[in-house]
């Protein structure tokens, strides 16, 4: 079990150590502590590089020291003749003697204690991105105001994610823009527009200043746009490297800004707007669109009026116009409705008259009524031709919609009277 | 018909037969209307008629069109009170409205009405046609239609006819009457109500209008009186219009 202190004595201490021994001690103190090892007695045969007999202090793979010879304290108030302090909680001490100890060297006496490590200062690498706080046996990191400590408990970032932009036009900037953006942050914004609009991002070159890419082209800080399966970026550098206008083809866009631990750039500012998706301008025959525009977009409403002689039939009802709306899928509502020729259907039959079965009964077609001649004739001369009109009626130039009247022919005997006059 | 000859209904397709008790004639002027003399229908408010037949033998009438009267319209000027000893035949004209329309064809078609223009003023010397199943020189009545052509003459001719036991001077003569005939050619009893048909002026093809209706006479075989239809055109048209059904309009 790790202990806070301990003693190490060479074999047979304080008697002469034996020949040809090698003994090791693995010291361990609780984590978060370092080890202070000090010798109060050192009496080991001296040799060059301590090649014959020695005591070695090893921390990990690093040899902290190799001792031999005789030492005395230089401080009259302290018995310590040699001292080591390692920022590790483990240490190995190895004593080695060769085949001869003829002068009866007595070896060493050493003690170790657990000492607090100041993690905030004792290492080359700073453990915290911002504020480091040392305590006995450990340390903790803390952050400036408006920053938060990441899950790694070491780095601080700003809480810049989660904002959702739903307005049709807007502006988004990196945190603190144009002041330098925070390090160690990941900002995720979302532009969420009504379906039927595509997000279009515009960026001015001068509005973009992000830590430039490294020699391999990797962006340490980056701005990325994600629209469904499409990804734009990552972008970094001084001056926006991407297109100044990005058409995402999507009504949602994720804006992700990732920063690392370093950087003093001002960040970025983008503008976006919702571009309504277009609906095709259908050159429907026999109809007029109001208003007449070169391009129609989402939410546009048009009144489609059938030209004379054409109608749109919904169910059993015919009408001359209908409304259509450009929908969020780029399709027109009521797109199945078409202006079709008015069908006057077969005209009414008349007493003592008839009409020839027409080839069709659509707008513009003409039928001709005739009377049962020679005994009936049309009351209105020239009143036999009826044209199918736009309102679905058969109309005669003289009689309008009134049906022709076949009246008896008067005064004409089928055989003349041949009188035998006396 | 005196002085006439047998004819076919095709030559007088407007001729309507009133069987007994009327035993008279009429003129079809429309699908729904028959024109006749007032004295024909004054005692018969719902007459039965036939059209389209030359022969009025009962068995042949089955092939004719049966016309059923819906209403009779006697001219308001007709004197209904003097029928027992009638000497006033002024306004001898009546209309019969039919319940069902008549189907026209070669044997049934109407005769035209005169208009108010002077062209339709019957002139002396103008010839007209009469037809009927009435008395002839030989028979009280005939089964086959008879026809005759006769001229219009001055009314004075009719006023001078001396009938057997008839004092012609006691009869009323008015401008509503036409006198027509010549010696031997005349209408007679049983022909009443039939048309005196005159050819349309200025018509290329023969076309007849009803200038008169067989009315009365002092003696058959001379001159006879015909109701002057032209004087009643307004009444005829108005009566027809006021009593037509909406569908006819």
Give an overview in words.
The complex is a heterodimer of chains A (422) and B (249). By secondary structure, chain A is mostly beta strands. Chain A has no helices and 38 strands. In chain A, strands 15, 17, 18, 21, 22 and 24 form a 6-stranded antiparallel sheet that branches. In chain A, strands 1, 3, 6, 7 and 9 form a 5-stranded antiparallel sheet that branches. A 5-stranded mixed sheet of chain A has the order 14-16-23-19-20, with no helix packed on it. In chain B, 9% of the residues lie in helices and 29% in strands. Chain B contains 4 helices and 13 strands. The longest helix of chain B has 10 residues. The N and C termini of chain B lie far apart (38 Å). Chains A and B meet through loops of A and strand 9 of B.
In brief, what are we looking at here?
Chain A has no helices and 38 strands. Chain A has 422 residues and is mainly β.
Task: Throw out a few tags for this protein.
heterodimer; A: 422 residues; mainly beta; six-stranded antiparallel β-sheet; five-stranded antiparallel β-sheet; rod-shaped; B: 249 residues; six-stranded antiparallel barrel; 4 helices; 13 strands
* Rg measurement of chain A, Å: 51 Å
Apparent shape of chain B: globular
Overall mean confidence score, pLDDT of chain A: 90
Greatest contact pair? A-B, 20 and 38 residues
Which oligomerization state do the chains in this entry correspond to?
Answer: heterodimer
The overall pLDDT average of chain B reads: 93
Can you summarize the main beta sheet of chain A? 6 strands, antiparallel
Poorly predicted runs of chain B = none
Work out the number of β strands of chain A.
38
* Distance from first to last alpha carbon of chain A: 167 Å
Q: How would a crystallographer describe the biggest sheet of chain B?
A: 6 strands, antiparallel, barrel
Overall helicity of chain A: under 10%
User: Segments of chain A where pLDDT lies below 50 for 5+ residues?
Assistant: none
Pairing-aware structural class of the strands and helices of chain A? mainly beta
Strand tally of chain B = 13
Spatial separation of the terminal alpha carbons of chain B = 38 Å
Fraction of residues in β-strands of chain A: 35-45%
Task: Please state the overall shape of chain A, judged from the principal axes of the Cα atoms.
Answer: rod-shaped
């Amino acid at each position: 079990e790790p202990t806070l202190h301990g003693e190490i004595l060479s074999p047979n201490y304080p008697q002469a150590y034996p020949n040809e021994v090698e003994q090791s001690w693995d010291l361990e103190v609780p984590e978060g502590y370092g080890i202070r090892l000090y010798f109060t007695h050192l009496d080991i045969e001296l040799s060059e590089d301590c090649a014959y007999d020695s005591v070695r202090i090893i921390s990990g793979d690093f040899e902290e020291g190799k001792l031999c010879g005789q030492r005395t304290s230089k401080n009259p108030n302290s018995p310590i003749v040699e001292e080591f302090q390692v920022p590790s909680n483990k240490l190995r001490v190895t004593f080695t003697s060769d085949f001869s100890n003829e002068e009866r060297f007595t070896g060493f006496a050493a003690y170790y204690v657990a000492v607090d490590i100041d993690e905030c200062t004792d290492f080359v690498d700073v453990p915290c991105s911002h504020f480091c706080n040392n305590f006995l046996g450990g340390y903790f990191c803390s952050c400036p105001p408006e920053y938060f400590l990441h899950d790694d408990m070491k780095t601080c970032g700003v809480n810049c994610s989660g904002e959702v932009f739903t307005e049709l036009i807007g502006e988004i900037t990196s945190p603190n823009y144009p002041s330098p953006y925070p390090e160690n942050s990941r900002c995720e914004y979302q532009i969420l527009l009504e379906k039927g609009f595509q997000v279009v991002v515009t960026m001015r070159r001068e509005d973009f200043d992000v830590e430039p890419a490294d020699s391999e082209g990797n962006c340490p800080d980056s701005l990325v746009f994600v629209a469904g399966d499409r990804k734009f970026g990552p972008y970094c550098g001084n001056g926006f490297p991407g297109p100044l206008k990005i058409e995402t083809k999507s009504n949602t866009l994720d804006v992700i800004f990732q920063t690392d631990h370093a950087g003093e750039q001002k960040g970025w500012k983008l503008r976006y707007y919702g571009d309504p998706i277009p609906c095709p301008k259908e050159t429907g025959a026999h109809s007029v669109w109001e208003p007449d525009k070169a391009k129609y977009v989402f939410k546009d409403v048009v009144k489609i009026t059938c030209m004379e002689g054409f109608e749109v039939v919904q169910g059993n009802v015919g009408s001359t116009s209908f409304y259509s709306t450009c929908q969020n899928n780029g399709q027109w509502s009521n797109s199945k409705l078409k202006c079709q020729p008015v069908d006057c259907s077969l005209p009414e039959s008349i007493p003592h008259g008839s009409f020839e079965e027409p080839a069709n009964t659509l707008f513009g077609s003409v039928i001709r009524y005739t009377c049962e001649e020679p005994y009936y004739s049309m009351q209105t001369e020239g009143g036999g031709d009826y044209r199918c009109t736009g309102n679905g009626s058969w109309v005669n130039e003289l009689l309008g919609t009134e049906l022709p009247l076949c009246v008896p022919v008067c005064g004409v005997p089928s055989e003349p009277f041949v009188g035998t006059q006396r | 018909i005196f002085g006439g000859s047998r004819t076919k209904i095709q030559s007088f397709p407007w001729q309507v037969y009133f069987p007994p008790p009327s035993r008279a004639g009429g003129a079809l002027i429309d699908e729904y209307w028959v024109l006749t003399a007032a004295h024909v229908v004054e005692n018969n408010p719902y007459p039965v008629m036939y059209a389209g037949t030359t022969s009025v033998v009962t068995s042949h009438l089955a092939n004719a069109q049966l016309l059923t009267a819906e209403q009779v319209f006697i001219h308001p000027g007709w004197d209904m009170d003097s029928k027992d000893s009638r000497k006033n035949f002024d306004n001898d004209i009546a209309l019969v409205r039919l319940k069902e329309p008549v189907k026209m064809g070669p044997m049934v078609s109407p005769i035209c009405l005169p208009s108010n223009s002077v062209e339709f003023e019957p002139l002396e010397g103008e010839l007209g046609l009469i037809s009927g199943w009435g008395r002839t020189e030989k028979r009280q009545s005939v089964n086959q239609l008879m026809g005759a052509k006769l001229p219009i003459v001055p009314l004075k001719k009719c006023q001078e006819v001396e009938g057997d036991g008839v004092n012609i001077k006691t009869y009323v003569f008015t401008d509503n009457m036409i006198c027509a005939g010549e010696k031997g050619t005349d209408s007679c009893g049983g022909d009443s109500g039939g048309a005196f048909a005159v050819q349309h002026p200025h018509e290329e093809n023969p076309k007849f209008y009803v200038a008169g209706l067989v009315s009365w006479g002092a003696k058959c075989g001379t001159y006879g009186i015909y109701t002057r239809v032209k004087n009643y055109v307004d009444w005829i048209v108005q009566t027809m219009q006021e009593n037509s059904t909406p569908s006819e309009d």
